[in-house]
Amino acid sequence: MKLLKLILQGFKSFADKTTIEFADGMTVIVGPNGCGKSNISDAVRWVLGEQNVRNIRGQKAEDVIFSGSEVRSQKNAATVTLVFDNSNNELPLDTAEVSIARKVYRDGESEFFINKRSCRLKDIQELLANTGLGKGSMVIIGQNRVDSILSAKPEERRIIFEEVAGINKYKMRKVDGLRKLEKASINTERVLDLKAIIEEQMEPLSKEAEKSIKWENLQAEKRTYQVTASLLKLTSARRMMAKYENDCIRLQSQNEEYTGVLDSISEKQKQLSKETSTHQEVMNAMAHQLADEKAKLEQLRGDYRVKEENLKHNKQELARLLEAYEDEIEAGQELVEDYDSVTQELKQEEVILKELQGQVADKQAQKIQMSKELAQAQAAYATLLQTSQTVLVKKNQLLQDKKYKTIELEKLLQEENKLKEAIERNNVHLVKLDEQIEILKEQYRVKSSIFEEFKKQSDYKESQYKEAEEKRYQLLRDYDAACAEMRQMHTRRLDLKRQDEEYASFSYTTKKILQSEELWKERIIGPIGELVQVPEKYTVAAEVAMGNIVSHLVVDTAITAQKIVEWLKHKNAGRTTFYPLDSMHSHKIPELEKVIKENGICGVMADLLPHESSVEELLQSLLGRVLVADSLAVARKVAHKFKYRFRIVTLDGQVVNAGGSMTGGSLRKKETTYFGRKAEIVSLQKKEKELQVAVEVLSRKKKEQDSLCADLSEQVTQDREQMQTCFVDVATLRERMGRLHNELEHKKQEQINIKDTYTKLFYELEQVRIALVEVDKQLTGLTKVEVPEQDLKSIEKQKIINKIEEELTGLHILAAKSEGLIHERQKELQRLKEKSNFSQNTATQLTTIIKKKKHEIEQIATLLVTMNKQCESAEQAWKKIEKDRTTMEALSGDFLEKQTLLENEWKSVQTQLTSIQSKLMGIDARLEMFRNEENKELEQLMSMGLTERTAEPLRMKGTISEIQKKISLIDDKITVLGAVNPNGVTEYETQKEKLDFYNGQLEDLRKAQVGLQKVVKEIDDAMSTQFLEAFEKINVEFGRTMKVMFRGGKGHLELTDKENPLNSGVELYLQLPGKRTQALTLMSGGERALTVCALLLSFMAYNPAPFCFLDEIDAALDDANVERYGRLINDYKGRTQFIIISHRKKTMEFADTLQGVTMAEKGVSSLITVRVGDYIQEE
User: Fold this and answer.
1) Mind listing the GO biological process terms from this record (predicted)?
2) What phi-psi label fits residue 485: left (phi over 0), alpha (psi between -120 and 50 degrees) or beta?
């Protein structure tokens, strides 16, 4: 590599673009004083990265830019470019020429370029690291450089030797490594602090998580027992409902029949009022007999209907059992399909796992083979190193012998002035150290105060955060409670709506009719309850007054009613009451006009309920004699006044019946009645809307609180980080103060050592000359063994092994995931198998129950045949008596006695009818109670997200009392747990993940620190070896060059601290011919210049630089010394381009090229080039 050209534009006095081309050999730049010669060497120093403007004779950055002349304006920028020949690829760039440029603007902005591409100064320093052109090198020696080199401290002089030894690249790597090491150490401390914070939180979070898990387990157990309790209560309620429904159907039938009998008797009384008493007595006797037979017939018919209903119920139960059996069979089939599917997935996963294990085995085999190859490569490289080391050891031994034979007992006496200067420097340093300690104390006080402020602020923010979290939890609980209540209301409304749509308050027969698809369904007007509108005020009164009538059906004609009756008989679907509109007529009772005017009477029930005109006659017939009163007292008073001829119902549901009987007491819940249900649906819709608004408000508040908590959490984290940073700063200041105190003590001890140290060494060079010649011969005879710097083959093998290990890691992860999936599939198979066994057992049990139920149905059917025959026999007996009674009526004339008989019969039937109605009221109350119980338990199941079918698998063994005791025990355990954080498990797992992450980060950082420390140590070893080798060679060459330069005399170099070569300074020891050893400061200017030249040439002998600039260092030499100076440079110009700035003619005589610098234009430098060889050839 050599310097081809230097291009300047706008740099100092070179206003125009100027290109200076450099040829091989020695180039001498000449010109008058002030023409700008030294600006060339300044330009080279500047483009190579000089940052101190004073070293290039300036005060500020813009001083290097052309400042203008009398006729030219100033430039806005300065550019300098160096162009190198890189044909031998000494620089690591794939170009034959390499250019390095630097540009600066007047605003101070500076740019660097490599091959016209922008780069950093660091990139240029790294590019030139092995060329000897670094910042501390001696390739540019200016007018003031001689004195600075000789008067420099040993530690400062060492920088030049490091550049020549070529260890700057190692220093740069070491600095980078130390910086990374320091950063890793800081990161490690920060991770440790964060880890400590999380570890403090882990113990309470662990307890909260454990408590939360216990709470969830107890709640799940409690839920199972609650489901079991609901199922037991549901079964009990339905069993009782079935019993009372059968009783209710029987009594309703009797009630209808007795009502008909009363109507018939009333008609007969009117007809027989004028008949004689004799006929009445006969008819009365016949009526008694007829009543007995009819009672017997009705009893038989009632028993028959009961058995019929029992048969129907058993058939329904059988159908339900068959449906449940089919469901279980279908569920079992689904479980078998699921089992087969999971088994197939398990087999697939096992195949995948086997493939992954095969790939792992292959990779491990590859790794073993590569490890063997790596071991072989490393062994070969170690053998080569051993051979090289043997030669190197012998060579080093010879060099060491040469050193000790060259340097023997040379007397060194430290001059008193130098000791005084050292003492003075130490005094100044001690004063500075005291000042620095005081400054650090103040900084420590300030930082400690800031740390306390941060701590107070952090504590305050944490308290705010805790309060916000508590408020967030409360909002969350309120929100969940509101949502639960809204869901409960929604479920309740849907359930009520479903009940309404399914005619829940209607009898089985009415439901069957309304759900049929027969043609006559279009002629059904509807149930009476759906044909009226009940104001809220009269809801209770209407419910009591109408009773079971609400489910009775209104049809258009009697023919339609007859068709439906026939259909019911054919379907064996029970019986109900029909009201054909064409046969329903009402009779106005004149007395009602007087009754409704009584105080406290609200009116006639038929008039108080809004309805369509088409059902007016029907409602008047049914409710035209029912009055509504404010209270029971009013009802009793009015009934007594009008001889108990009307039925009066109060607003709160109490009844005064016609005839004087009273019905009253507590009523079933409003929401379980037909009209109450409809009112509740409307009320629930309204409340649901209100709750929806409340939930939205709570949701908005919850989101705001979540955001606030997140912000506060982030602030708390930031405060903790700031507090930690401040804590680290305080600790750093404390450590720095400790270091400064130690340094202060060290300097004081050093001061004592300097005052006490006087060492004398003697050296005799002539006596070892023969020994040196012999050593040189032995060194020449050693064969050099070439050893590559790195074992490239082993490195490549290691890279392959690393890649295989990465692939193995990935395969192991995939295999672990596959094993986890296999384990999950196996667990799923076990679960499906258990469910299948349970399903099979259930199906077996259902089969047994179905067989029993079929046998029971057959027995009831046989009994029904027998009972039917008994009914037919009783009916024939009754018909015979009826026929006899008719005959008596035709023959008898005593109608008065017959009238009395009918009157007594009317009272008897009325008594029985009242008794039946009273029983019906009691049964209705009980039925409603058990319906409420059923609805309550179904709602309980729905609130838990279950249906009756899905809840059955959860049923536990035990009675209801045993289950309730277990629930109470669980409640006690939950109470003992106290307050539970619902997010405890999630928060614990989150913090656990963070802790694992920080542990991983800590392990990575520690590994990185160990690796970096190893790299730094390797760099130190390499630097130490290379520096010592270079130093020994330069030392020998310096002694030889000094002898030639001064025609005798002695000179050698020595490290100030041989035990620590990497931090040791370099001292120059000179004894000029005919003189005693003296301080460098006492030497003349010429002697100093020659000494620097000798040092420079010693450097060139060891590590030749591509070029070297010498700026007028021959100014202080006489002609004879200039001659020696020129000849020595002439010896080295074959390996290094020398560019010398000089006024000496003797120097110009050695030049291969002359470059003349002049100022043809005032203030602007220009260039003239002359190749001396061309003129010599011409001559």
Assistant:
1) chromosome condensation; chromosome segregation; DNA replication; sister chromatid cohesion
2) alpha
Distance in angstroms between the alpha carbons of the first and the last residue of the chain: 32
Rounded distance between C-alpha atoms, residue 1088 and residue 1072, angstroms: 11
- pLDDT, average across residues 1091-1107: 78
The order of strands in the sheet holding 626-629 is: 601-604, 626-629, 647-650, 655-656, 662-663
Q: Nearest to residue 458, comparing CAs of 202, 277, 721, 224?
A: 721
Distance CA 1035, CA 110 (A): 40
Residue 220, both tokens = 């799940």
Does the pTM exceed 0.85? Answer: no
Mean pLDDT of 661-679: 68
List, in order of start, the domains of the chain with CATH numbers: 1-139+1113-1169 (3.40.50.300), 423-482+683-760 (1.10.287), 508-672 (3.30.70.1620)
Q: How many CB atoms lie within 10 A of CB 249?
A: 22
Dihedrals φ, ψ of 6, to 5°?
Answer: -125, 125
For the annotated binding site for ATP, the residues are: 32-39
Amino acid letter, 416: E
Composition of the chain by helix, strand, coil, percent to 5: 70, 10, 20
- At 1138-1149, the pLDDT tens digits run 888 888 888 888
User: Tokens 């079992």 map to which residue?
Assistant: 332
Computed over every residue of the chain, the mean pLDDT equals: 77
Q: How confident is the model at residue 671 (pLDDT cuts 50, 70, 90)?
A: very low
Alpha carbons 956 and 946: distance in angstroms, whole number: 16
Q: Using 50, 70 and 90 to split pLDDT, how confident is the model at 408? A: very low
User: Is-contact 754 419, C-beta < 8 A?
Assistant: yes
Q: Is the pLDDT of residue 137 over 70?
A: no
DSSP string of 893-909, one letter each residue: --HHHHHHHHHHHHHHH
- Phi/psi zone of residue 25: left (φ > 0), alpha (ψ -120 to 50 degrees), beta? left
pLDDT tens digits, one per residue of 606-649: 888 888 888 888 888 888 888 999 988 888 888 888 877 778 89
Give CA–CA dist 12/2, Å, rounded: 25
Residues making up the binding site? 32-39
State residue 409's pLDDT score: 37
Separation of alpha carbons 1158 and 1152, rounded Å: 20
Query: Per-residue pLDDT averaged across 760-776, rounded?
Result: 49
pLDDT at 765: 41
pLDDT at 392: 58
CA distance 1101 to 1039: 12
Token pair in block for residue 741: 């105190």
The three-state DSSP-derived secondary structure of 1032-1099 is HHHHHHHHHHHHHHHCCCEEEEEECCCCCCCCCCEEEEEECCCCCCCCHHHCCHHHHHHHHHHHHHHH
Location of structure tokens 């009779």: 587
3 state DSSP class of 76: coil
* Backbone φ and ψ of 294, nearest 5°: -70, -40
